[in-house]
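call fold(seq) -> tokens
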Amino acid sequence: MGSVRTVKSWVELPTRVASVRQRKAVVRNWVVGNRFLVDVPDTHSLSEGEKEKVWQNVYDASERGVSRLRKGTIDIYQSINTMINAMQDRGAAASTIFGHKFKLVKLFRYLKLRIDEDDLKQAVRPIDSSRVTDDKQPTREQMRNCILHGTTKQKAMISFMVCTGARIGETVQVKLSDIEFDKKPVIVRFPARKTKTARKRYSFLSSECVDLLRAYTANRERKSEWLFDGWIPTEKRNNQEDKHLTTSSAYLQIRSVFEHPSVNLIPPGARSNNHKTGPDFGAHQSYHPHVFRGTNLTITKSTGFPDSYAEFLVGHSTGSKEHYYNEDELGKLWLEKCEPNFCFLTTKSTEELQSNVLELKAKIAKDTYKTLIETGALKPETLTTPVLEVIAKKLGIKFETLILGGTMIAEPGTSYEFKSGEYQELLKLPIQERRRKLLELRPRPTPKAGVEIRLRLFDMVSNAIGLETEVHNKYYEAMKVLSENNAQSSWENHTDYYLRVEVGSDAYMQALADGFKVMDADGKMRILQKSKSLPTPTINDESTKSRVASQQ
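ret:
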């Protein structure tokens, strides 16, 4: 005769620890839901001996339940529904309930209890297994907050999972010997037996992640072969077997960081309010450890790192071509493009670096124009409205600020007055179309209004470059009495030459022949621009010639 099939033997049948844990959860929920036991205590903080006693009580209660099923004193389908109702009352996710229902049917079939497929469909409540979560990716600032407000262990774990895109089950099974700290970048290897897909892979660690891992492992109470070791808090650690952290403990470690008041990725009370469902309540939240895989891919791909390489590093299959990936070359490319973006505490993202470059260019422009005005190289008569608009844009003053700040559309009588709701509709248009519309609304001001607009523009530029008060007042008074004319003028900065000439004039035609490009228009006048990397322009006006020559 073969061995007797029991609930306990079904639970212990799989070789994977995670599968055994899932089967235990199914049995516990079935036993408690059907009141074969009033409750099953949390075993996380118990000793091995105490855990064994708890689970023996669960197995004994389950066997009593199975005996009643065999005798027909309780209906097998009703017992499944009772478990479903209890789990729903407790606030379990629909996907979890669906999985329990499926596994419970497998248990009954293992125990050779008769299950009719038609009865199963008709008598057992259907469960919508579609996910109610709406996964969200943490921003760079939120990632920074997570690392700042975690313990040394939590900092290291979060940084590791984001850098590698590792699943939580893969993360806790990493040994220190799996990490090659002498490589640059540092490599972590995931043996096939430890990955979900049963395929070996490797990934890279940023310098910040390596520092956090070393800080954590250096301050542990005892040595361990595991990167993230686990133990029973109620017992002396030195007397316990060296084991890795369980996935459930790792999950709770990261969740506690998400719930930190300064991080606030999971709202307060979300865990306790089990009668609400959705992405912000119950067991499944919008933010959970698995979203770090998406964060990894988002960061890696945004740097220009090839998509197939990024997918390979997180363990997604990329087909036969992955056998041709060169580890050293892949590491060099990752180090160059991706590594800085995984240092949340010490370096800035690619977007932030690009923003800094724009800020630097604007600062250079401010210093240049301030010097040109304070030294008199740019005289009041040359600072016409179109010229000031060009300077303002070079200083980083946004187009909408120029338009709506009173420089191009001013007060009643000299400006376009928006009708109710018209401006809100304008803002809905794409940026280029919006700019075109705004320019179409720009009126031709009277001479008096034109002076006012010119002075406002000058004030804008003066404030942006930090012009000395004495110089500002001198230019302001001069510009109040100057009227803009069609005279030819020229100026330059450190990168470009500029000309203001009348369209169709000889000077205009010569400038086009010299490589100048039209960049703005004001009635008959045109503002032309040419890079200094091109040959020096031909200038027909004698006064302009002498001024440009004195500046070279």
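The chain has a mean pLDDT of 80.
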